[in-house]
Amino acid sequence: MPLNQENQTSALFNKLSNHYGKQNWWPATTKFEMAIGAILTQSTNWNNANKALANLADNDLLSPTHLHQISRDRLSQIIRPSGYYTIKASRIKALASHVYSSYQDDFESYLRQPKEALREDLLSIKGIGKETADAIILYGAEEAMFIVDEYTKRLFSRLGHGPLNKVYDEWQDFFHSTVPKITSVYSEYHAIIVAHCKALCKKTPACHTCFLINECKTGKETLTSC
DNA sequence: GGCCAGGACACCA
DNA sequence: TGGTGTCATGGC
User: Fold this and answer.
1) Where are the alpha helices (DSSP H) in A4-84?
2) Are residues A135 and A42 in the same domain?
C-alpha cells in the first residue's frame, strides 16, 4: 500500500536519521551567537563562517551592544574569512542595532515574542530573509518552524514530493502539514538534510546534481546500503 | 585553476 | 512573478 505524503516525509526522516545519527544543531554557546552565525553562513561554507565567529569572540564582539557600537569597516575586516564580508557586516550590524534599540543585550527576551511576530520582525531587518529568519526561530527561539533551503527543495523535488514551484512559503506549508510540529524534529530534519547532501557531495561529486537516496550509483555510502 | 558553500537583494523583462 | 547578477573567502 503506497504511503501518503505525511508518511513519506516521516519515512524519509527516519531513514536519514538512522543513517546519519543525531546532528545536535545549532553549534553555538549563546542564542545571539547562533543568530550571528546564521548570517555569517549565508551562502558560505560553515568552516569559513566559524572562523569569522571565532574572530568575533576573540574581539569580545558577540553582543548586540558591541556590534551596534563597532564601525562597519572594522567589523568587515574581523569577519573577512566568511566571505561577502562587507555586506555581512551591514547585515550583522542591522540585526544587532535592531535588537539593541529595544532589548539592549537581552537577546533571549527578544526571542520570546510569539513566533509569527518574531518572524515578521526579523524579516523587517535588511539582510535577513526567510531562511535566516526561520533558522533563528527554530534554533534560537526553539519554536517549530521548518527551514526550507535549496538542498531541501532539490532533494524532495527529485523524490517527487512537495510543490512543483520554488516558492518558499509553499514549501514550508508542505512540511508544516506533513511533519509533526515538534521543534526537535524540525531541528534534526533540517540538519540531517544538510548532512546528507554534504556527505554525498563529498564522496561522489556526481551526486551533487541528483541527491537521490536510492539512485546514487557511484557512492559507497548510500542509504540503500544500510 | 575551477568549483562550491547551511542567502539576500536589486534590477529587469 | 521569475530569472540573473552581485557580493568573496577558503577548502578540496
Assistant:
1) 5-20, 31-40, 46-58, 64-69, 72-78
2) yes
